[in-house]
Design goal:
Blueprint (H helix, E strand, L loop, with lengths): L3 H4 L35 H7 L18 E4 L4 E11 L7 H18 L7 E8 L7 H9 L2 H5 L1 E7 L10 E3 L15 H14 L5 E3 L8 H5 L4 E5 L8 H7 L23 H20 L7
Bound molecules: phenylalanine and zinc ion (ZN) (3 copies).
Length: about 290
């Protein structure tokens, strides 16, 4: 079932630099992801928000940390949509980054192993982000040039349910002036995310696309990328509080990188809205087939 957000996706056309697969417009529609569809209400809250136990696994090092990857058995493997979130944390890490990890897991589980996608979807839970983006960096560097070219885009989820949430999309087109434009295609990913948030009544803002999370190495090798963010140590302005609700003058996440980043430190509406947006955009690109690179 196509919806308003799907039509807003645009062609990712790598005409400059190396060609990273092809993405079409998403007029083919969107695979409904149960519970992540607005019509399904708040199912994600139960799925992602109430784990029975929380086990701290002890201190990870770069050597002991692991990435976890999963990929649909369906879809082209030379035009892969990669979606990622870091699994490691400073303390319990619920806002940073249980939110992104949970949204990613829920999307993967509800999509299933063999959805009818045209492009394979690869899910990545990164290790050792907090120690210096190690998991994602090593992963990208582990791929040869051909394997890197088989990645159509990378979508990053790092902090998507901050307790005083901003609704930020990485500034892929450089329009904010806070960072350089991303690889060709990043602007269209930004627009797709902004449009899907707008379809849910949320006016997003850009945020610096400066390499402060796991998209950094993807961008460094020229892969179009984008992502969602609800804010960390920055303070919400009066204008933002007026349009998003929340508390002006407070940090988006007052417990960022603190022991108090526990299960109470999540805005569940923000998590749901962003999980829906990510699931939608990832599956829409998974369905896009129009060849744009000739
Ligand atoms: N990568 C940061 C962390 O894990 C969070 C962050 C994401 C900050 C995106 C800015 C932009 O602590
Ligand atoms: Zn962090
Ligand atoms: Zn993080
Ligand atoms: Zn922008």
């Amino acid at each position: 079932a196509a919806d308003a957000g799907a039509a807003a996706l645009l062609v990712v056309n790598n005409t400059e630099g190396p060609v990273h697969g092809t993405l079409g417009d998403a007029d083919a529609g969107v695979i409904p992801v149960a519970g992540l569809d607005p019509a399904d209400g708040d199912a994600l809250f139960d799925a992602a928000g109430t784990p029975a136990t929380l086990e701290l696994l002890g201190e990870a090092t770069v050597d002991t940390s692991r990435n976890v990857l999963a990929q649909t058995s369906t879809g082209r493997t030379d035009n892969v949509v990669v979606v990622g979130a870091h699994l490691d944390a400073v303390y319990a890490g619920i806002s940073d980054n249980g939110t992104g990890s949970a949204a990613l897991l829920e999307t993967a589980l509800r999509l299933g192993a063999a959805p009818e996608v045209n492009n394979a979807i690869r899910f990545a839970w990164w290790g050792a982000e907090e120690l210096g983006l190690h998991g994602s960096t090593q992963y990208v560097r582990s791929l040869d040039a051909e394997q890197q070219l088989d990645i159509a885009l990378y979508l990053n989820l790092d902090m998507i349910g901050s307790p005083n949430p901003g609704y930020f999309v990485y500034d892929g087109d450089g329009s904010d002036g806070s960072s350089e434009p991303g690889p060709h295609g990043s602007a269209q990913i930004e627009r797709a995310l902004v449009d899907h948030l707008a379809a849910q009544g949320i006016e997003a803002e850009g945020t610096a696309f400066d390499g402060r999370s796991d998209y950094r190495e993807f961008v460094a090798v020229g892969i179009p990328a984008g992502g969602l963010f609800t804010g960390a140590e920055g303070e919400m302005t009066e204008e933002q509080a007026a349009k998003w609700g929340g508390t002006a003058g407070d940090a988006y996440d007052p417990h960022y990188h603190q022991p108090e980043d526990d299960l109470d430190n999540v805005d569940r509406r923000a998590l749901l809205v962003n999980a829906r947006t990510a699931a939608h955009v990832a599956t829409a690109y998974g369905l896009s087939t129009r060849e744009v690179n000739g």
